[in-house]
Amino acid sequence: MHLPRLNFTILCLMALLLRLGMLIYGEWQDAHMQVKYTDIDYKVFSDAARFVIQGESPYKRATYRYTPLLAFLLTPNIYIHKSFGKFLFVFADIVVGVLIYRILRLRGLQDQKAVNYSAIWLLNPVVSNISTRGNAESLLGAAVLLTLYLVLVKKIIAASILYGISVHLKVYPIIYAISLLVLLDDEDYRGLRRKGKEKELDRDSLKYWTGKVVRFVNPTRIKFGLISGGVFFLLNGIMYYLYSQEFLNETYLYHVTRKDHRHNFSLWFYYIYLTFDISKSSIMALLAFLPQISIVTLLGIVFGNDIFFACFVQTFAFVIYNKVCTSQYFMWYICLFPLIIQSSTIKFFYKGLFMLFAWIGGQALWLYQAYNLEFLGENTFFNIWLASIVFFMANVWILTEFVQNHVYEKCFDLGKIRKIWEVEEEDMSNGQSSNNGL
């Protein structure tokens, strides 16, 4: 018995209807229930947009910690409709799904599998809930995936511009710089062959490593770095001109020393709680970046040529080692997850299912303790920290499993996209034809 094939267009329509239904329900819940559906951050965005329209600083709205560019984008919330931003985030959700599908097809994945993997994002209730509640993470996810797609199709100038914008919107995509630079080499990405003598040099010789360094600084990498960096600093310069030091403090510097002692899955949760009123704890906040950045950089160097897996594991590690970790951060790597499934040897039954249970169970344990704190008024800070440790350990195990069970596949070979899954599909088709012949 064969299940009906799901067309990608139908999948997108289903995803859109799911989100529209959640938007309608959200409006009802906001109007009739004490607990609101709309995220508090969305109200912050809207208030900041109102200040922008009035010619004032978006930072007059307390807790607005984002680039003014986001407030500019959401000004239609004020003069068109209050839910404009939610529709924008829903649109970004669909764009992410389309990009997932396009990337998988470009790498040779059979159409129905590409549709099925795209559904992991498009029909994901967690993803739909976050965007329809008014969280902007899908906007950044779309920018990151479009950057990677443009790199894949060798639109370097467009990719560089969009990457600069992405890092300006939220600084975390800077972690992809190392893996992108590793990818943009002469031989694989540009298709330029090296001379045979260079390949035969002794790896321990100074000449060999000098040549490696010289070859690393190639025109493509220089172009990508200059354009993306130029766009990033241009946008920052404009925002600094408009809002001076307040822009830097709220958009970037705040997040370096940020202390969030509630709603925080991080391993650093309890330390932040105990030292919340101690100014010297800012030094520890900076030190918290060291293991995080070290692991993220190493993963980028090792897996850079397999760019989608590199970005996924970099993001996963960045989130779990971050000193602040909320549910919205999971969106950063969930949008990359469908792109790496086909290259994993993990079977859904039973290891994959157990990994999923560990990820969800760790959150459930934490949320139970957080509920007791927030709604029952119980002092469960220590228990929340224990739950954070469990969640952290579960995530480290999951990350290790992904790395150990990944089939490393370079994205490019001699300047061309490697259709790595096309051969697998051909082999399967040939096998089925042989069986039918029997």
Automatic annotation (TrEMBL):
<keyword id="KW-0337">GPI-anchor biosynthesis</keyword>
<feature type="transmembrane region" description="Helical">
    <location>
        <begin position="380"/>
        <end position="400"/>
    </location>
</feature>
<feature type="transmembrane region" description="Helical">
    <location>
        <begin position="348"/>
        <end position="368"/>
    </location>
</feature>
<protein>
    <recommendedName>
        <fullName>GPI mannosyltransferase 1</fullName>
        <ecNumber>2.4.1.-</ecNumber>
    </recommendedName>
</protein>
<feature type="transmembrane region" description="Helical">
    <location>
        <begin position="326"/>
        <end position="341"/>
    </location>
</feature>
<feature type="transmembrane region" description="Helical">
    <location>
        <begin position="169"/>
        <end position="185"/>
    </location>
</feature>
<feature type="transmembrane region" description="Helical">
    <location>
        <begin position="6"/>
        <end position="26"/>
    </location>
</feature>
<keyword id="KW-0328">Glycosyltransferase</keyword>
<feature type="transmembrane region" description="Helical">
    <location>
        <begin position="297"/>
        <end position="320"/>
    </location>
</feature>
<dbReference type="GO" id="GO:1990529">
    <property type="term" value="C:glycosylphosphatidylinositol-mannosyltransferase I complex"/>
</dbReference>
<feature type="transmembrane region" description="Helical">
    <location>
        <begin position="87"/>
        <end position="104"/>
    </location>
</feature>
<dbReference type="GO" id="GO:0051751">
    <property type="term" value="F:alpha-1,4-mannosyltransferase activity"/>
</dbReference>
<dbReference type="GO" id="GO:0005789">
    <property type="term" value="C:endoplasmic reticulum membrane"/>
</dbReference>
<feature type="transmembrane region" description="Helical">
    <location>
        <begin position="268"/>
        <end position="290"/>
    </location>
</feature>
<dbReference type="GO" id="GO:0006506">
    <property type="term" value="P:GPI anchor biosynthetic process"/>
</dbReference>
<comment type="function">
    <text>Mannosyltransferase involved in glycosylphosphatidylinositol-anchor biosynthesis. Transfers the first alpha-1,4-mannose to GlcN-acyl-PI during GPI precursor assembly. Required for cell wall integrity.</text>
</comment>
<comment type="similarity">
    <text>Belongs to the PIGM family.</text>
</comment>
<dbReference type="Pfam" id="PF05007">
    <property type="entry name" value="Mannosyl_trans"/>
</dbReference>
<feature type="transmembrane region" description="Helical">
    <location>
        <begin position="224"/>
        <end position="243"/>
    </location>
</feature>
<feature type="transmembrane region" description="Helical">
    <location>
        <begin position="139"/>
        <end position="163"/>
    </location>
</feature>
<comment type="pathway">
    <text>Glycolipid biosynthesis; glycosylphosphatidylinositol-anchor biosynthesis.</text>
</comment>
<keyword id="KW-0808">Transferase</keyword>
<dbReference type="InterPro" id="IPR007704">
    <property type="entry name" value="PIG-M"/>
</dbReference>
<keyword id="KW-1133">Transmembrane helix</keyword>
<keyword id="KW-0472">Membrane</keyword>
<keyword id="KW-0256">Endoplasmic reticulum</keyword>
<keyword id="KW-0812">Transmembrane</keyword>
<dbReference type="GO" id="GO:0004376">
    <property type="term" value="F:GPI mannosyltransferase activity"/>
</dbReference>
